[in-house]
Amino acid sequence: MLDPSGLVFRPLLHDDIGSATDLLMLGSPSGVRYHLAVQLAAAEAGERGCAFVAEWEGSIVGSALLSDDPLLPGLVSTLVAVAEPARKSGVGSALADLLGEQLQHEALPAYCKLPDDQFEGRRFAERRGFVLCGHSLGWSLDLTARDGTLERAAREAARSADVRIRQADMRKELDTVLECALRCMPGMPSEQHVAPEKARKYLPDDAIVLLAEREVPGQGQGPRAIGLTALSPRIETAAWYTLFTGVAPAHRRSGVARALKTESFLRARHARAQSVVTHNHDTNDAIIGLNTSFGMQPAPGYWDLRQPRPA
Ligand SMILES: CC(C)(COP(=O)(O)OP(=O)(O)OC[C@H]1O[C@@H](n2cnc3c(N)ncnc32)[C@H](O)[C@@H]1OP(=O)(O)O)[C@@H](O)C(=O)NCCC(=O)NCCS
Predict the structure, then answer these.
(1) Which among 76, 80, 86, 90 has most CB atoms closer than 10 A?
(2) What is the atom index within ligand 1 of the atom nearest the CA of 242?
(3) Cα 105 vs. chain centroid, distance in angstroms?
């Protein structure tokens, strides 16, 4: 336990972004650093949200962020993280109080996502009025066990679904990708919608985005994008994270998602990934059915906690 009299609480500065991101990653279910770094930079620049740090003897020992999330446009996201040696010294509570003051000026309700093996974090949030309102299951696939079979499986899956799978060029095809993603959203559990104007920032620069294309009679010339999947490296470089998989409703149950994901596993393996991880809302039977059909194994999921606004 550190001496609390040496603690300084202050707004995040540009030079703190790296340390603050490292700390907040402790509570990040996705393990994808990019989103937190973007949110912290936007807060520091005064564009959106706000962020604070706790400093002790020149080191950042705690961080707190209030921001938005393109996947949950009707809510503000909150996150507090404290380095292990600085815990039980009131750092987390002081940072949460700073966020609480900011939340009073917010019109939208607050939420936080917490890994479902972090019981202390959940109790901390519940003591501050957050209420459990959803749960996502975690899944992991060991790619090393599939060496030698993925190439053929990907080819077979695309052939049997009658699709061509190709990697989108995100510098030139962002609009095509976003338009396709929006067509593939129906059926997602409520509130998991992407705000189109904000979705542009959702995909990290190092993400692999795969499009499934098919000739669709009566829909113009050439193949049309009817599904996509996007995945990105996690902080542990040997694991990749699937951010989203979707197929346009008229083309579902014809093997398109299976073809997309099989190809994504192959591409991740070529990028030296040893495993692919993902999360699915526990009511989303379609994607859970798909992921279990690949033999994905249970992994840590996350809780969705919300702070109801006073009536
Ligand atoms: C989940 C989703 C991507 C599946 O796409 P799809 O192209 O219909 O899936 P496939 O045809 O490749 O299905 C492959 C397997 O997944 C499972 N599956 C797919 N849909 C299912 C459903 N509705 N219920 C149960 N299992 C299902 C089955 O095992 C299926 O194999 P089978 O058809 O031989 O039984 C699609 O339903 C979707 O776009 N949903 C909305 C977006 C979403 O929720 N994405 C997940 C969050 S990121």
Answers:
(1) 80
(2) 48
(3) 26
**For residue 186, which atom of ligand 1 is closest to its CA?**
41
Domains 4-108 and 138-300 are alike in CATH topology: yes
In CATH, the architecture of 138-300 is 3-Layer(aba) Sandwich (3.40)
* End-to-end alpha carbon distance in the chain: 39
Would the pLDDT of 203 be above 90? no
Which residue's alpha carbon is nearest to atom 24 within ligand 1? Answer: 286
Contact by Cβ (8 Å): 249, 286: no
pLDDT value at 192 more than 60: no
Q: Is the pTM of this model over 0.85?
A: yes
Domain 4-108 belongs in CATH node 3.40.630.30: yes
**Ligand 1: lining residues by beta carbon, under 6 Å:** 184, 187-188, 244-247, 252-258, 284-287, 289-290, 293
Alpha-carbon span 298 to 279, nearest angstrom: 10
β-bridge mates for residue 306, sequence order: 111, 131
pLDDT at 301 over 60: yes
Measured CA to CA, the distance from residue 26 to residue 305 in angstroms comes to 17
Domain positions in the chain are 4-108, 138-300
CB distance 274 to 231 below 8 Å = no
d(CA 157, CA 166): 14
Q: For the segment 68-113, what is each residue's pLDDT rounded down to a tens digit? A: 887 777 889 999 999 999 998 999 999 999 999 999 998 889 999 9
